């Protein structure tokens, strides 16, 4: 539960430091609305979001979206609850952590972007005959305790007969943004990495992609757009427009090649060439990591809770309809 407590402490501090006021958006009837969005990291994993921005889908809905990368689940949720952002793109587990604190204005999941884990197992050495049991006894650079990458990682390892805290030399003392560089410079043998970092490492020869945690773990609401309940109640029209733009982008990504997607999202990854971006997109498309619609269903929610419970990080059993609003997304799909 240390991960959950850490996030809750961040949120508590944020609530004390900021005066929670009215959101910066005006009303549902405004011709245009400015929306501040905080994304948990910058990754090809969020390709549909960047497509919505670059293809003008938000503009078509009369929305001006200001995107900020906040680097980590705790910082992203702190930004949201303190009104530093109107909408956050982050793992659904964070909404459960905040709810367990007894928040008067709960954080509601309203549009799912990814439906599987987006990390890949990267090893220092290539292994054409890889099997999970080869990790036993290895030095493994883990993710933040209580975050989705680490919980899904532990879940997959346990499903393959590996106790991550007994069978590995597991390190979890590196900040999220510094994990790639720490793996490169340290004596770690394995790490979980998002794209395009995994492909960059492979091209440079500093790492080799061995397996997909998303393929091994199944569907889960890995990253979801969420907002405070008050925002959704006061800005229902804005939330619908935002979700409509995301759905258009999800459908576009699903119907276009990795190469076409890469060309569109390249401005968000200026240091990565288009060919490598295409490889990253195709990895995610092959593993069905991108959600093709924004509905977060109850089965996925229950899978999330099972993974959290297995990791010892589920503070309470929160029903699907308590923190998930599917009506907005369902109405958009049925238009």
TrEMBL record:
Tagged with keyword Cytoplasm: no
Record-level GO cellular component terms: periplasmic space
Subcellular localization, as worded in the UniProt entry: Periplasm
A Pfam family this chain is assigned to: NMT1_2
Leader peptide range in chain numbering: 1-29
Keyword entries, A-Z: Signal
Principal location listed in the UniProt entry: periplasm
PANTHER family noted in UniProt: ALIPHATIC SULFONATES-BINDING PROTEIN-RELATED (PTHR30024), TAURINE-BINDING PERIPLASMIC PROTEIN (PTHR30024:SF47)
Family: Belongs to the bacterial solute-binding protein SsuA/TauA family.
UniProt name for this protein: ABC transporter substrate-binding protein
Natural source organism: Salinibacillus xinjiangensis
Lineage summary: Bacteria, Bacillati, Bacillota, Bacilli, Bacillales
